[in-house]
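Work Package 4 report. The design task specified in the project plan requires that, given a folded chain encoded as structure tokens, an amino acid be chosen for each position. We show below one input record used in the internal validation round.
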């Protein structure tokens, strides 16, 4: 809360206006210019570039705050990657969910190979307990990454690798939220900014799934849970 309070102090608009713009941009299929027009109808003049700066500045702080209160996830993971266009080139967003559809973690990478998959698994395990089973498709790169992780562990602690495209439909369906939101963005211009915006979209998606665990969040709507973090 102290981090977000300091960030908002440096922005010259009311907290509720900034927060609403950031949430609407991440949650709905709106462009920055759509938001600029909507705010103008309310008598609030904000340039679309200012709206973008708010998103880039605040999402990392909100993501950090959310991870402190994220509900525990299951130990049986479904992992897959999807394509994201950045500056005219395809990059890769690695994602995983548990068997109930709860988001485990995500990582944007420039390449789709064993090294990228390994980075994703190390990040996910760092933030969560090691999974018992990981279901993947027939990707050799993902298999190699898991085999590399298992090679570092004694036999009784290894991760069971299961390859099944049918069972992985759960994660493939979950990609749709990302695809739906990024479709109107016409591609990102910067890898780092894409990382930030995608983290914000994932954050909103996790809140909608009920993955926010905090005393203030009990019984509140997803929107109200998002606003819980903001300084009063």
């Amino acid at each position: 809360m102290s981090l977000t309070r300091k960030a908002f102090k440096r922005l010259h608009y009311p907290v509720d206006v900034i927060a609403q713009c950031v949430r609407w941009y991440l949650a709905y299929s709106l462009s920055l210019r759509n938001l600029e027009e909507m705010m103008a109808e309310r008598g609030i003049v904000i340039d679309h570039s200012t709206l973008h700066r708010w998103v880039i500045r605040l999402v990392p702080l909100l993501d950090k705050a959310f991870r402190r209160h994220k509900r525990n996830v299951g130990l049986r993971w479904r992992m897959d990657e999807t394509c994201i266009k950045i500056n005219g080139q395809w990059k890769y967003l690695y994602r995983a969910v548990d068997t109930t559809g709860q988001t485990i973690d995500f990582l944007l990478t420039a390449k789709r190979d064993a090294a990228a998959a390994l980075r994703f698994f190390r990040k996910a395990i760092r933030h969560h307990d090691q999974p018992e089973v990981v279901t993947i498709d027939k990707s050799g790169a993902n298999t190699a990454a898991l085999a590399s992780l298992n090679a570092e562990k004694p036999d009784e602690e290894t991760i069971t690798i299961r390859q099944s495209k049918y069972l992985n439909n759960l994660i493939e369906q979950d990609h749709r939220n990302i695809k739906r939101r990024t479709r109107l963005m016409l591609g990102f211009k910067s890898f780092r900014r894409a990382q930030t915006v995608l983290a914000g979209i994932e954050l909103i998606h996790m809140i909608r799934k009920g993955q926010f665990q905090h005393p203030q969040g009990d019984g509140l709507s997803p929107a109200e849970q998002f606003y819980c973090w903001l300084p009063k």
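Residues 55 and 132 are 36 Å apart (CA to CA). Validation will be extended to a larger panel in the next phase.
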